[in-house]
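Ticket #168: bound-state structure for zinc ion.
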Amino acid sequence: MQGDYRPKNAMPGLAPPGGAGEDWREMEKWVKDDQTGTAAGGGGKFRRTFRIWKEFRFEAAHRLTKVPEGHQCARLHGHSYLVRVHCAGTLDPELEWLVDYADISKVVRPVIARLDHHNLNDIIEGETTAENIAWWLLGELAGKLPHLDRVEVMETPGTGVSVSVSGD
Ligand SMILES: [Zn+2]
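RESOLUTION: The complex was predicted; output attached.
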């Protein structure tokens, strides 16, 4: 019995030439065909969407002010935050990359420096939830970083949030 593999076929930038219903086991064939420029619709890697990311870390203190009395997050405490900045788009035809990782750093590091070893309650408007930190970062980076796609913020190794420019 054939399963429904449409979710695997619905990966952005990896739509199979035969449509979303095409069996995922055909992936190897159509990716290889596309790499040699023979796939239906053609186009190869310069028509693909590539997503790259770079990670940044900072340490900061914060407390939440709207949580119920006795909630642990109401007390001033700190996190080692991990931020992942994603860029997405098509390749530069000459350099064959999306964005220079060094260019991402040039834009993001000064923004991260504004948070590092500070009390986030003095900087972020509203509650200093991971959601609001990601939202603040997105606002600070939008318009400065070409191909910015989304920002992830991880408060602990097992918890995180992401928010995208497109809103999805
Ligand atoms: Zn916290």
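RESOLUTION NOTES: The pocket of zinc ion is lined by residues 62, 73, 77, 79, 155 (CB under 6 Å).
TICKET STATUS: resolved
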